[in-house]
């Protein structure tokens, strides 16, 4: 997404708050994957998005509009990861995990479970100390089932860019049409592999999506 501008962190506007920097409240831009490692919260759906997008059912519908859906047959393998978004809630488990559906919102995620693909975890910044309503996403590209669904090389940055590319512009699902803009933000997350799960380096860029229902 080279066409996107690189911005420093700007969160508060005259009409609301896009998000609060988790570090300001003792949180982190990495979730907790265990053993002191984390996966980057590399996409944020802005708190300035349409309110109906910023709910669990709303983000699921938006996800379906950009090629993701709920897990295959609602089966989730592995423990949920937690994240501290610095909002006063402390570490909170992911709200939901969504997977690439390859054009079939009913059973397509079963294919992702077999051959790999993009997926993301959702965390909501809604505590009393930083109630932006923004959704922080941990996005990554997975390999196939034979590798134990490990993250692909450069899978965090690739996953972020793939999701953002699918979201930008006009999309629709279930009778709801979305218009999405994106900005790349620097300064929220360090670049490199220190503390990153699977020792995969990240470029330190977080993509901010603003999603408006038409």
Automatic annotation (TrEMBL):
It comes from the Eukaryota. This is Uncharacterized protein.
């Amino acid at each position: 997404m080279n066409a996107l501008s690189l911005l420093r962190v700007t969160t508060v506007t005259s009409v609301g708050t896009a998000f609060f920097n988790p570090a300001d409240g003792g949180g982190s831009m990495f979730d907790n994957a265990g053993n002191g490692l984390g996966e980057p919260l590399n996409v944020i759906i802005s708190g300035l998005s349409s309110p109906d997008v910023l709910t669990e059912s709303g983000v699921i519908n938006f996800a379906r509009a950009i090629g993701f859906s709920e897990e295959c047959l609602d089966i989730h393998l592995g423990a949920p990861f937690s994240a501290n978004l610095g909002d006063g809630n402390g570490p909170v488990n992911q709200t939901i995990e969504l997977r690439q559906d390859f054009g079939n919102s009913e059973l397509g995620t079963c294919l992702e479970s077999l051959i790999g693909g993009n997926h993301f975890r959702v965390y909501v910044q809604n505590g009393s100390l930083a109630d932006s309503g923004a959704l922080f996403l941990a996005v990554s590209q997975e390999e196939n089932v034979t590798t134990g669904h490990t993250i692909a090389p450069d899978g965090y940055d690739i996953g972020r860019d793939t999701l953002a590319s699918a979201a930008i512009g006009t999309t629709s699902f279930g009778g709801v049409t979305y218009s999405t803009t994106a900005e790349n933000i620097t300064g929220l997350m360090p670049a490199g592999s220190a503390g990153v799960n699977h020792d995969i380096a990240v470029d330190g860029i977080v993509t901010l999506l603003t999603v408006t229902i038409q």
